[in-house]
Specification:
Nucleotidyltransferase, domain 5; 500 residues; alpha/beta; 19 helices
């Protein structure tokens, strides 16, 4: 059997970080990025710097060995589709030229040494390309030897800085004995706050509506939260709780925190100290996990037309193509949801734009599980959306999207709606009711079936007014509307059909 292959070139980004070396390999699917491979090695380059900022031969050897692994994978990728960058440690190292020359020979590709500002700008672009918010946002990234702080809006940065504080260098300075105690933490936090104080007022004066980070420390915290079935949102109280847990462990080798991966333990305490300093110095209320950082910034800027389409639209388009979703029917559902939402939004106080966007996404993706089979397609759809790459949708967004798709018809799993954190549970009930009504009204899967209708609500009762002749001509839809009265009881809603 011959399989016809469509050309889809690969793209690769390599980031020679101070703590880890990363390689990201992707390809384009429906204008969206599909990750093909990820390779990460804990090289800990910054730990190889001596008091004269000279890289040790052992650190150089570790780095070159890692790059020899990467070089093998790059052979199949067009040279113009490859970006390789180096960051903070190689900005600091007095013998950086030696390492960079050897690295370029090993990879057979140019390595660009980014300045601190260039690194910060690429980190911000990575967040901008993978987060849906167009509001002014604060982006922080704690690396091995530097921390970048950026405020920007859309794809434009407004304030950028790179500070010489990092989780690897701070481990050497304040946790060199591997001891975890209040004194070590206080020293590290104070040192970080001293550095941050130079720029803190400028950032607080600009302000922001959301704060995001994709650094290793934030990833580790998100994994701990997710292990405990909590949203990947960090506040100061949680950081202080983690600090006390670490102090209770007494030694880095003895760290035991549920959900924390073993490879994150060596520099976790120093990263927490820096993050606490950032929260206190910048008066950060809460910090969300971003799905993008420097590698995504380099990648998306290399790809064609990535600023022309919103990240959520790209993600949805890719899923629609990959899972062969019936776009004409999903568009019908979308149109009816918009009509229902417009009539009910003020009554139900659905004023959040993100709620409306997630409802729209559920319309377009509600049949994503049909590709596998019909019988359990809602469960399959929920599974796909739980585990798929969804750039532009954070963990809380994903939870609501999964709850809507899983419950778009039939029995309602109220617990899924209660556990999501994207919107209040009552609002989630309302959004689901709108989606379910739209699905029933479009049951015929035809463009010319629906009459004009009105819907309103009072005391959690929906009043749907439809022409009596139309209901008589569509007995299946009329019967499903009657059955919906039973299903909606699970979320304390009722529906009354008024035939005129």
């Amino acid at each position: 059997m011959t399989v016809k292959l469509s050309p889809s070139p690969l793209y690769a980004v390599i980031d020679l970080g101070s703590n880890s070396f990363h390689m990201l390999i992707t390809r384009l699917v429906a204008d969206s990025v599909q990750i093909v491979d990820k390779v990460k090695r804990k090289v800990r380059l910054a730990s190889g710097l001596n008091e004269n900022n000279q890289l040790s031969e052992q650190a150089i050897a570790r780095g070159l060995e890692c790059l020899s692994f990467f070089a093998e994978r790059l052979q199949d990728i067009p040279r113009e589709n490859i970006r390789v960058v180096a960051t903070a440690t190689l900005r600091i190292a007095s013998n950086a030229d030696k390492f960079l020359a050897l690295a370029q020979t090993t990879l057979d590709h140019k390595v660009t040494l980014l300045s601190g500002i260039e690194e910060a700008e690429q980190i911000y672009l990575g967040v901008a390309h993978t987060s849906c918010s167009a509001k002014q946002r604060l982006v922080i990234d704690i690396g091995g030897a530097s921390t970048e702080i950026i405020v920007g809006e859309s794809f434009t940065t407004k304030k950028v800085c790179s500070l010489n504080i990092g989780c690897v260098t701070f481990k050497k300075q304040f946790f060199a004995d591997d001891k975890l105690n209040q004194h070590n933490f206080e020293q590290a936090i104070t040192a970080a706050k001293t550095m941050i104080a130079k720029v803190a007022d400028d950032y607080k004066n600009i302000g922001w509506q959301s704060a995001l980070s994709g650094s290793g420390t934030m990833q580790a915290l998100a994994e701990i939260l997710q292990h405990n079935h909590l949203p990947a949102v960090v506040n100061l109280a949680f950081l202080q709780q983690i600090q006390q847990q670490l102090i209770a462990c007494k030694n880095i080798d003895e760290i035991t925190i549920d959900g924390l991966a073993s490879d994150r333990k060596p520099v976790f305490a120093s990263g927490i100290a820096i993050l606490i300093a950032l929260f206190e110095s910048l008066a950060i209320d809460k910090l969300q996990l971003s799905s993008g950082a420097i590698r995504e910034g380099l990648l998306y800027e290399m790809l064609p037309n990535m600023r022309a389409i919103t990240i959520r639209t790209r993600t949805i388009n890719a899923l629609v193509e990959r899972f062969h979703i019936d776009t004409r029917h999903s568009q019908r559902i979308y149109t009816q949801c918009q009509a229902l939402y417009k009539q009910l939004a003020s009554i139900w106080q659905l004023t959040t734009d993100n709620d409306r966007q997630l409802l729209s996404a559920s319309c377009l993706l509600h049949e994503i599980g049909l590709l596998l089979e019909y019988k359990y397609h809602q469960q399959h759809g929920a599974y796909i959306l739980t585990h798929a790459d969804l750039p532009g949708f954070d963990q809380a967004d994903r939870q609501l999207l999964v709850a809507l798709v899983k419950n778009y018809k039939g029995d309602i799993d109220k617990q899924l709606l209660n556990e999501q954190a994207a919107t209040p549970a009552q609002h989630a009930y309302y959004l689901l009711a709108i989606l379910r009504l739209a699905v029933i009204l479009c049951r015929r899967r035809g463009d010319d079936v629906l009459p004009s209708y009105q819907v309103t609500s009072k005391n959690n009762t929906l009043y749907l007014t439809l022409p009596k002749p139309w209901l008589q001509q569509h007995p299946l839809i009329a019967d499903e509307l009657k059955q919906e009265q039973h299903y909606l009881q699970a979320i304390a809603l009722t529906i009354e059909i008024i035939a005129i």
